[in-house]
Amino acid sequence: MSTPLARPGADEYAPYYHTYVRLVEDPFRQLREQPIHLRQLLASLTDEQGLLRYAPGKWSIKESLVHMIDTERIFAYRALRIARGDTTALPGFEQNDYVPASGADDRPLTGILAEYDAVRAATLSLLDSLRPQDFERRGTASNNPVTVRAMAYILAGHEAHHLGVLQERYLPLLA
């Protein structure tokens, strides 16, 4: 999209997502720059270091990355359905069930990062294909109203949140 995407109003997403929306100025720019930032953060990380948890019961770095990928896929799918005018209420998902089922800790970090790149490319391709009026469309996800515009902000904000957690809680333990 060549023109900036206006910030969604509070009525365009569930209050829970404000945590993510507030982290975004320009979702398209952030979605394009986040892979670069992620690579810089993880450039020297080994597979063994990818197993690091900053506290007992917390996800490993690899699990956090796969969570980001899974969530992006789900949010992009929601954006697609709503952008295409599908009025079916879309179900939520339980992230704490997805993470252990992902087998992330058994995967090589290089494979996780390749998957991340593929998913991000698909997300950007989808969002770039949408017309301005598509971003205004409203639907229901997780029993809450949401617009496609809000989904673009939530996508970028969710990753911004997790990049912050990686920087603040995980990486200092590796220094």
UniProtKB/TrEMBL annotation:
Matches recorded under InterPro entries: DinB-like, DinB/YfiT-like
- Do you know which Pfam families this protein is assigned to? DinB_2
Q: Which residue ranges does the record assign to the DinB-like domain?
A: 30-165
Residue ranges spanning the membrane: these are none
What name does the UniProt record give this protein? DinB family protein
Q: Which organism is it from?
A: Hymenobacter guriensis
